[in-house]
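Preliminary data (for renewal application), 5'-O-[(L-methionyl)-sulphamoyl]adenosine complex.
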Amino acid sequence: MKESYITTAIPYVNGNPHLGHAMDYLLADTLRRYMLYCGKKVRLQAGTDEHGNKIFKKAAEQGIPTQEFVDINAQKFQDFIHSLGVDYTDFIRTTSPDHERRCQEIWTKLSDHIYKDKYEGWYCEGCESYVTDKEHDDNHSECPDHKKPYIKLSEENYYLSIADFKDEIRDAIESDELKITPAFRKKEFLNLLKNMPDVSISRPKEQVEWGVSVPNDDSQVMYVWIDALANYITVLGYPDNDISKDWPAHTQIVGKDILRFHAGIWPAMLLGLGLPLPRNLLAHGFITVNGEKMSKSVGNVIPPEDILAKHGLAAFRYFFLRHASTTEDSDFTWDKYEASYNELANDLGNLVQRLATLCKKNSIAGQKVKQRTNPNFDDRMERYEFNLAFDILWDGISELNKRIDAEKPWALAKSDPQKAKEVLTKLVADLLTINDRLKLFLPDVGETIEKIFTATEIQPPSTPLFPKN
Ligand code: MSP
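Predicted structure:
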């Protein structure tokens, strides 16, 4: 069976993992679990983007040798991903010798589309990105995201021709051969593509020393984005290995801010290498805090560990997968988080406790999970509307709560014990069916629920699934 390959953006390791990074991982994990559920084999890459000036400067600021600094931070990201209950199959670090060598081979293979020229213009070190004069003027010479002045650059660089591939890229995106979700971002990008210039893909070594050297030109270092984008295939072993088992990727997940790199530069690289384009690019929205962009300078960054510590992993996953939209921006506030936790405890926690207690009292045995099709759910998942798919499951949970209230099995147990058994058995069967998909979003809780209701003797959990504290 051909594997389905899912990728996540590789974060810069100049800081700690934050909520924005969590979004990449949770969405990728949900998709991975769904594909496994559908019987596919899945490969999920994660990794860290470890080159470039801002990382080099951060290490110097902290007085740590750069390699040591990136080693420490790459580990933090791996620990973070695990703390979210996410399992990747491959982890790539851009400072690994294999990746660096493969990047150089990729560069050489692209050489027909690479030329040297002078670059004069603006650059944002925070974004590690060149800035047009218009952007520079519109933003009054300061990056709105990083609140840092743009730097004026005047240097010799190598360029990758976008012009050579523009028509092919546009056609692929227009026809959804390379499908961008959500559709409004596809439109936005197609507009941007019209005037997309060739991209500078190297920097002089005297400006940036922490990077991969350009083959046959020791004075130049690869621009971080070329090195970073290549990760999606170097991790598969390209060009040493035949990657056709995994490539093209089924879905590449990125935040909305970096879609343009993935829909513009990356396809140009792939076409230049004679490789197929990924089938889907999913651009998720941003997480804001109290309505504002998270930023160190505003001082509103909430470390994900604080949120995890509050009510545990299931509450974290529940909030960010159900109450954060997959494709739009979503806001985190502690009040919303508390409300979301109460909902989880009241709707699901109480249902499990009540139903298991009633089953125990009426000696209802556990049963096997019955899988049933759910086309509405599949439809939402296939459109990458994960939060709406999650809503469908929650409607099912609410429905079960209503049924318990309406059918009153505790009263039936006195008047018609046989009927009470039937009602409870049916409720358990339906909960197990819903839970089978709930596990895609809340794997640990889903496992616990499955254990309770498939056990020979159903027992309520000794402590509530979601304690009030
Ligand atoms: N290193 C590049 C990506 C290279 S991929 C070949 C980068 N790193 S990043 O650390 O700035 O961002 C990593 C991911 O986190 C991106 O998908 C980015 O969009 C996402 N987010 C960063 N801040 C975010 C929010 N506030 N909210 C949601 N996601 C955001 O870009």
